[in-house]
Design brief:
This protein is an all-alpha fold. Helix content is 78%, strand content 0%. The chain is built from 7 helices and no strands. The N and C termini lie close together (8 Å).
């Protein structure tokens, strides 16, 4: 069970990591404070969206019980494909914007990177996974990977973003495929 949650956490953190790398690319001289706050935003939003999805699906569980397992498979595979294919999208050109930790910039980014967690939270209801440890672990992994992403982005190139998205997507697809096998 713990392995499932860890793999899901890694897959969900791919988007946050990729965006954090891009943010890190915009930082001239990072003190580490930026990495901490980006990680905090992304980790908290991942956890909150996971809980929101879980409790919303819990309300409708009895109506969806017969298709719940297949719904979880579909959600994880579709999100995995979306994430993996994102690694192959061309970056839009344009002027580099200055890095900012303002809530007006970070809240939309945090929401965008955590919408997958909403769907995964809903699927966890049908997989009988305990939500408390899953939430803590997924939020923590998103925090750590996002903070690392900012630091790596500050030091490296955009290739890391593509690799992270591809690996995260592959992990989610594998998790979705393994659900019917009671992995």
């Amino acid at each position: 069970m713990l392995l499932k949650i860890i793999l899901i956490a890694l897959g969900l953190s791919a988007d946050s990591f990729a965006v954090a790398v891009c943010l890190g690319l915009k930082i001239k001289n990072s003190s580490g404070k930026e990495a901490f706050f980006v990680g905090l935003y992304f980790g908290v939003f991942q956890a909150v969206m996971l809980l929101l999805g879980f409790y919303t699906a819990s309300v409708f569980r009895s109506n969806l019980q017969t298709i719940g397992q297949w719904l979880a498979v579909a959600v994880l595979v579709i999100l995995g494909l979306k994430t993996a294919l994102g690694a192959f999208k061309k970056e839009k050109g344009g002027s580099e914007k200055e890095f900012s930790l303002s809530p007006l910039k970070m809240i939309p980014l945090s929401l965008a990177t955590s919408t997958d967690a909403l769907a995964v939270g809903a699927s966890l209801v049908f997989l009988n996974i305990s939500i408390a440890p899953a939430t803590v672990l997924i939020g923590t992994v998103a925090f750590v990977f996002s903070a690392i992403g900012v630091k790596l982005g500050n030091l490296s190139t955009k290739k890391i973003k593509r690799v992270a998205e591809l690996l995260g997507g592959i992990i989610l697809i594998i998790m979705g495929i393994l659900i019917p096998l009671n992995f």
